[in-house]
Amino acid sequence: MLYTISANMEGWELFVNSLLPMISGAIKYTIPLTLISFVLGLLVALLTAMMRLSKSALIQAPAVIYVSAIRGTPLLVQLFIIFYGLPSLGLTIDPFPSAIIAFTLNVGAYASEIIRASILSISKGQWEAAFTIGMTKTTALKRIILPQAARVSVPPLSNSFISLVKDTSLASLILVAELFRKAQEIAARTYDFLLLYIEAALIYWVICFILSLAQTALEKRFDRYVAK
Question: For this UniProt entry, which segments traverse the membrane (predicted)?
Fold first, then answer.
């Protein structure tokens, strides 16, 4: 769908007419990018956390290097390496998949430390109790440890999810037509940068506020199962 916004609009009219393109960008790209990257990132995080908890140095090493590399470099640089750098090696990836790869790897590294810390926070007595009734280590992990660790990790993982919504604005720099990219395109035609960037910020704020309410409700739900 094409949106034509004239450069000679008044402030309020411009605000109203630019709202639909920005919301469209959020629905088509920002939200899907956030959801896909976060789900894939959690899978990467769980695998990485399990590798970090392994007693084998050979298994630990790749996970340690991956987490260190991702946490030690800016997300923007990671995006640029994937989208602008890989073509020099003959591997060209479209903007949206490039953003998904970059955000997934970034989420995976940070979330893996949250999951690892959550697992380590579960007392050894839980493991011993599971072994006492004949559970294997894998079964104990699935049925006893991970469910408890999941409850512990909900607040920090929820914060990571909300942060990811804001981080998706960086995808505008590799031509993904998400919310902020739409604001940039309209601003380039109207030259009213302040108004449009404030409008984009308000939309991000509304999305994050709604997610914060959902986070609070989720935490209260998990609190029901915590012994007082």
Answer: 29-51, 63-86, 193-214
Count: domains in the chain? 1
Give kind and range of the element (H or E) at residue 130. helix 124-132
**pLDDT tens readout for residues 85-138:** 999 999 999 999 999 999 999 999 999 999 999 999 888 888 888 888 888 878
Rg (CA), the chain: 21
Whole-number Å distance between alpha carbons of 184 and 177: 10
Q: pLDDT by residue (tens digit) across 157-194?
A: 999 999 999 999 999 999 899 999 999 999 999 889 99
The token duo for 82 is 């994937």
Strands, E assignment, 113-218:
none
Query: Mean pLDDT score of the chain, rounded to an integer?
Result: 89
- CATH code for position 55: 1.10.3720.10
The answer to whether residue 4 sits within a structural domain is no
> For residue 228, is it within any domain?
no
φ, ψ dihedrals at 94, nearest 5°: -60, 160
